[in-house]
Input
Amino acid sequence: MPDKYFEIAGTAILVHHRGETTLPGSPPPLERGQTILFLHDAGANGNSFASVMDALAEDHSPVSFDFPGHGRSGSLDSLASIEEFAQHTEELLREWDVGSLVVVGEGLGAAVGLELTKRQQVTVDALICIGTVGPDADLTEEIKELELITAGKARRNFDTSGYAPEPDEKVLREAFAQWVKTDPRATLGARRAQRSWNAEAELSGIGTPTLVVIGEHSESASRESSEGLVRDLADASVETLPGAGRHGAIEQPQSLAAVIARTINSLGLSS
Output
């Protein structure tokens, strides 16, 4: 698949896109249909959305990237705040001449998407949130575990929770392949940034149409956090993703792509 690097604030950032490969330093091709920007979760990377992007590429222009410290982007450390994540994303988009933009954010990426809409430095026409999202998301136990791992006091183990019952082995293999690409120090920094943002988030002024997608098999705490986010926003709705837990982009990519395409069409955004 076409990948290319951009330098943002001195850090090499890997961008994933579809369509023709463009010259170094040139924007990825974004002329087809709707530009859809995917923002990944802490500890993941832009390729977590590969199958969803493949499913949308015939009619739209999907693009993702690896946040600093994640995947194959530069830096050993994560950015320190959600505001910095949003600024970083704005800087990346600034030279791309993006018109209409739909943002799909998972976990941490959803917080970044919400911050982008709040800052209004780029125009976000619709936001789709997946995974464990919202200011009520409890990250305490995950952060404690990451602190032990990064201090050398615990072994780093792949987390197989949050999937639908009896997940396909291919799903777990793909999730593992993306998980190992990011150092736990970067995951810890990103989760700390998300926790700080959650504690102070003020979302009442956000009027961007938002869809919160909840996996059918998501645990009750994750579901309650997502439903709380819907209540916090002025123009938000919820949809269930059948056959998925918290990891819908990997578990049910075709179904998630259909939800995204349907949302775009319902808002009249597809060109």
In short: The beta strands are 3-8, 11-17, 35-39, 61-65, 101-106, 126-130, 210-215, 236-241. The chain is about 40% helix and 15% strand. The first strand starts at residue 3 and ends at 8.
